Amino acid sequence: MPLFSSAVPLASSQPLPTMMDPSKFQIPDTRSLDDCLRYWNIGDEYKGIPLPLRDWPAKFKPSAYRSEAVKWGKIAKVVEEFQDFCDSDHQVFESRFPGLSSRYTKLVKAINSEREKRDDLVRRPKKRQRLVASRTVTEI
User: Which pTM does this prediction carry?
Assistant: First the structure.
């Protein structure tokens, strides 16, 4: 008689996504393009990302990782710019965003400027502007 039945899968080193609680995940500080690519494509279990960020929408409801949604979105835009507009070429990326590969905050701002030039950026009013707009609507 075999020790293991073929009907019962062996334990994996990584828990199944259905057993994970994404509300407990915390995307660590992102400092470079390389951090974005690593977190997006393979994750970083030691830093609190047991699954690649690209898989989160397929595995979890957005409300489950709501606390990390802004970080997730910024990393997604950086990776999209690198893959879609620079053809995953570091030299092309460096020529479009010189010196910013290791300066994440400035890189995000530069990418947003590029997206704004392409009419690809959705501008949302700041919270104070939304509050003022909602007051004028309710006063009418």
Answer: 0.75
